[in-house]
Amino acid sequence: MLIDKKIDLINKYFKKKKEMIIMELVIKDYNNSNFYMAIVFNKRLEKFKVAYIPLDVVNSSKIADYICYQFINIKTVNYILESLNSEKDKFEDPSARNNLNENINNFYIEISINLAEKVYKFKTTKYLPKKWIYLFDPIVIIFEHIPNIMSELCTEILSVITDSNVSIDYKSSLNFDLFNDNIDDLFEKTICKQGLEYYNNSEVKFVENVNGKYFAIVKDHLVIIEYNSKQKVLNLYCDCKSHVPGKHIYAALMAIRNKEVKEFYKIMVVDKKEDFAKENQRAKYYLCFGTEKDTLNVIEASAKKKLPISIFENKTAKIIYDIDDKLKKSVTKILKQHHSDKIDNIMSQR
Ligand SMILES: [Zn+2]
Question: Which of 61, 97, 216, 318 is deepest in the core (most CB within 10 A)?
Answer without folding.
Answer: 216
